[in-house]
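[job 4471] stage=fold_predict status=RUNNING
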Amino acid sequence: MRNLMLAFCCAAMLLSSCNRTKKTEETKNTVTDSAQLADTQAITEVITRFARAYMSQDNEKANALIHPDLGLYIIYRPGAMDTYEHVDSIDFKNPVPEHFPYTTFENDYVLTFGEVPTYDCGGEKWDKLGFFCDTTKQANQLAEIAAFKQEFKEIDEAAVAAIKNLEKDSYRVVLTQDENLIFHVKKHQGAWYILVLDRAYGWCDA
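[job 4471] inference complete, writing structure tokens
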């Protein structure tokens, strides 16, 4: 009888321990899911706000999404190869480069998280149209340009390393319809900001 009671107590304690573990895991999962949902909402808001600000060419609203310490890197193509310019803010009346005005167009698409479109210079068209952000791949356009600059002794190895570190955990956004808007977002100090405006991709003229 004593052995039976002991076995019963052990089983009860084991069951109680399993229930506590399960509840702890469920709580952790709930907290993680809530944090991920909040982060998705935050990145979505910043992306859509910048797109609206760009379309309306509103300097104040666009610059509110650019971190004052990080600034904005504008990628463009002055010749055969891409380059970039680092600016403190965007000014729609003074484009970078000067000969390439900031254009606006109507956006009828809702932001979707997934693989971004690619542009085919041969067919002069996108493989799909829409408004996309790919959070599965890190953006690396700045690092590629910096590495090319290093080959031609325009910048040193330390500068390339700094660009790579800056670009870490940044994601690419492509909005394409009749024209396109391409930019990168990065989380910095707990908030999302616009880091790169890509004015080179989506056009094939050198």
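[job 4471] summary: The beta strands are 72-76, 83-87, 112-113, 119-120, 125-126, 130-134, 170-176, 180-188, 191-198.
[job 4471] exit 0
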